[in-house]
Q: What sequence folds into this?
């Protein structure tokens, strides 16, 4: 036999073997397919019979998109109102699925509405079928549902929920808006205090991720509390000042000239010329005073084009500005502002305890302390306190941020207050329109206010005399042509006046003892962030 | 021998502290020192005997001259403790890195928790030399750090006010009250 012959024979055999193999394979595949079809058919019939068997199929499902088809006469109870007094009542409510956990014939849900949540339960029984429990368990987190349920008192407090004394036994559940299954961040991770759960390897969410997904981050209990408190600050500010006879004014934010130099202003194109975004409503407040409005305040955006990326700087923030005419001494202004601040602190303390405690859970801090009347220290006293603590600084040096913080600590230790006024700043470190001190020309009638050692307000008596104002402007080498209209405002009788501007975000941050102003700005703007 | 320097123009820290030690001990005539090597080790020329080399050797010699042997410890045990801290000063404190400084302060803070002086209840050479050695470190601490190492600060403040010790060094402000009471700032 030749080699080739041998090879041919083996090839033939091989082919035969291969065709046998293929046949077997085909047979197997056919069997498989048959089995699969059988199985599917069985499943389908099962499903059908199950659907037919599902006595609860009208009690759950995905609702049609709410397009205002019906005006349902249905009362939706708020989660925060679910208390033992409502026990055994059948109620409707709309909430988000915060978490869900299925366990055999039961499914536990935590339903959340703003910063409040309640435990709910779907269990197989005469109201809910197996299929309904399965459906409930499969609703994605953060979906919005309408639920009909009976309120039941519980034996043991539910520690993980805000409504600890009751739970809901769900009888109907409809999805109103479905959330995508993958969330960019988990709410539980976003409210976990620093360092907690580290052993279990649990995640915390860093600031940038939070801010990138602000809509979800704002749903956390902490964010909810922060911004409800912030709204409170604004309202207390308005109420207090209105009661004191102040008038709220609206000032333009697009201005033709920068108020204090031009270094830190945003330029915008304005038709054929350019304009600036206002760094403060300073000029307009003062013009209103010259126009006999006597006491004015203004709540609105303020822009700073400083390229500083710190924990307390934003490029756009909300300014709470005050300006008032006084009779003889600018301390009348200080007293008016400090009293307003004290009213705000008291209002927060008395009406926002829940919010404060909610924030404290994630970011613990000591309660905010203040004195009545507010402590007023002179700059020289502050410098003396710092020197005693070993800080070397000149009489007319400005306070550095670390020194400001240290002074805040020293003041807290000595006077037990987190809020104080530092009066009589050196004239050299203040803007040109600041009134010089009559007794010592090196100092000025200006002041800063501090919360927890950080500046929240800068203010002063303004120069209302056009001659002195011109002189001061020249001293600061300011182009008189650019501020002509400002100086001219004071030529036709200007009352002595003073004021100051507060940063809303800073006040909230420092009142709550937080560490980053972005936490108290809903959609923060800084040199590196323009979205969302 | 690299250079001859006489205090008070001395820029070398070891030489300045030896001069201060002399003053503290009340030695009438100031010695003349030189330094040797890259590390500027102090050298004392001794007329009758071979030169003395090294901070600790010279310091012990000065104590002998001043007839103040108790500054090296008044019992066998405290003498051992004093030697230990003197060694610690030249091996751990001198020329230590920024991270090492924190370790030194942490250890010392714990050690001084229940002691007035390094060797317990009496003032010794260990306190003087550790004070001189730590001075540049303590000067740079923030108030918050001084409060963090509160026992070191208390001891340091005590020694800098101990009659006759401070001499060439500027006083360091040490607050008597705690101002950083809460954990969160």
A:
């Amino acid at each position: 036999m030749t080699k080739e012959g041998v090879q041919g024979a083996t090839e033939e055999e091989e082919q035969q073997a291969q065709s046998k193999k293929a046949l077997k394979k085909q047979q197997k595949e056919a069997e498989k397919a048959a089995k699969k079809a059988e199985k599917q058919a069985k499943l389908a019939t099962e499903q059908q019979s199950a659907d037919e068997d599902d006595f609860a199929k009208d009690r759950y499902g995905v609702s049609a998109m709410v397009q205002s088809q019906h005006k349902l006469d249905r009362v939706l109870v708020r989660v925060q109102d679910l208390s033992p007094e409502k026990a055994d009542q059948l109620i409707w409510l709309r909430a988000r699925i915060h978490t869900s956990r299925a366990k055999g014939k039961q499914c536990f849900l935590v339903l959340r509405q703003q910063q409040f949540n309640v435990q709910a339960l779907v269990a197989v029984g005469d109201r809910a079928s197996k299929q309904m429990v399965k459906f409930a368990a499969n609703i994605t987190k953060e979906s919005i549902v309408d639920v009909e349920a009976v309120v039941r008192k519980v034996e043991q407090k539910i520690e993980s929920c805000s409504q600890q004394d009751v739970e809901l036994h769900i009888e109907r559940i409809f999805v109103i808006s479905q959330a995508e299954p993958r969330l960019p961040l988990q709410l539980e991770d976003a409210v976990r205090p620093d360092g907690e759960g580290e052993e279990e390897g649990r995640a915390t969410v860093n600031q940038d991720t939070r801010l990138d997904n602000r809509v979800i981050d704002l749903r956390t209990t902490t964010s909810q509390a922060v911004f409800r408190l912030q709204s409170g600050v604004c309202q207390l500010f308005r109420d207090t000042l209105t009661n004191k006879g102040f008038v709220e004014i609206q000032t333009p934010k697009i201005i033709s000239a920068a108020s204090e130099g031009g270094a830190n202003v945003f330029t915008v194109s304005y038709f054929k010329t350019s304009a600036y975004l206002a760094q403060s409503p300073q000029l307009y407040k003062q013009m209103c005073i010259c126009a006999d409005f006597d006491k004015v305040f203004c709540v609105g955006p303020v822009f700073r084009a400083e390229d500083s990326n710190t924990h307390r700087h934003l490029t756009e923030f909300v300014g709470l500005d005050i300006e008032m005419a006084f009779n003889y001494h600018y301390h009348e202004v200080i007293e008016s502002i400090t009293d307003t601040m004290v009213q705000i602190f008291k209002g927060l303390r008395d009406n926002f305890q829940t919010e404060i405690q909610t924030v404290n859970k994630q970011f613990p801090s000591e309660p905010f302390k203040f004195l009545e009347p507010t402590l007023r220290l002179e700059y020289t006293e502050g410098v003396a306190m710092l020197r005693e603590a070993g800080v070397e600084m000149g009489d007319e040096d400005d306070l550095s941020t670390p020194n400001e913080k240290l002074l805040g600590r020293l003041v807290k230790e000595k006077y037990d207050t987190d809020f104080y006024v530092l009066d009589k700043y050196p004239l050299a470190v203040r803007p040109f329109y600041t009134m010089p001190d009559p007794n010592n020309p090196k100092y000025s009638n200006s002041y800063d206010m501090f919360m927890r050692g950080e500046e929240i307000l800068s203010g002063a008596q303004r120069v209302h005399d056009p001659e002195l104002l011109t002189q001061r402007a020249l001293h600061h080498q300011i182009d008189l042509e650019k501020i002509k209209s400002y100086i001219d405002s004071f030529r036709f009788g200007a009352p002595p006046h003073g004021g100051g501007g507060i940063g809303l975000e800073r006040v909230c941050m420092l009142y709550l003892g937080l560490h980053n102003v972005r936490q108290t700005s809903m959609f923060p703007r800084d040199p590196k962030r323009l979205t969302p | 021998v690299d250079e001859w320097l006489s205090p008070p123009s001395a820029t070398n820290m070891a030489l300045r502290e030896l001069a201060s030690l002399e003053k503290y001990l009340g030695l009438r005539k100031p010695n003349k020192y030189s330094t040797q090597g890259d590390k500027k080790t102090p050298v004392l020329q001794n007329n009758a005997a071979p030169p003395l080399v090294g901070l600790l050797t010279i310091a012990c010699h000065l104590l002998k001259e001043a007839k103040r042997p108790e500054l090296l410890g008044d019992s066998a045990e405290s003498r051992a403790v004093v030697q230990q801290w003197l060694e610690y000063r030249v091996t751990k404190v001198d020329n230590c890195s920024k991270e090492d400084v924190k370790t030194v302060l942490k250890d010392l803070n714990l050690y001084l928790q229940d002691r007035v002086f390094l060797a317990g209840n009496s003032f010794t050479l260990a306190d003087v030399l550790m004070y001189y050695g730590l001075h540049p470190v303590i000067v740079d601490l923030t108030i918050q750090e001084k409060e963090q190492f509160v026992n070191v600060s208390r001891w340091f403040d005590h020694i800098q006010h101990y009659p006759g010790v401070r001499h060439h060094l500027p006083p360091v402000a040490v607050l008597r009250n705690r101002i950083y009471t809460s954990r969160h700032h």
Observations:
- The domain at 1-67 of chain B is CATH 3.40.30.90 (Glutaredoxin).
- Chain B has two domains: 1-67, 75-184.
- The radius of gyration of chain B is 17 Å.
- Helices of chain B lie at 13-25, 55-65, 76-93, 98-111, 125-139, 143-148, 150-160.
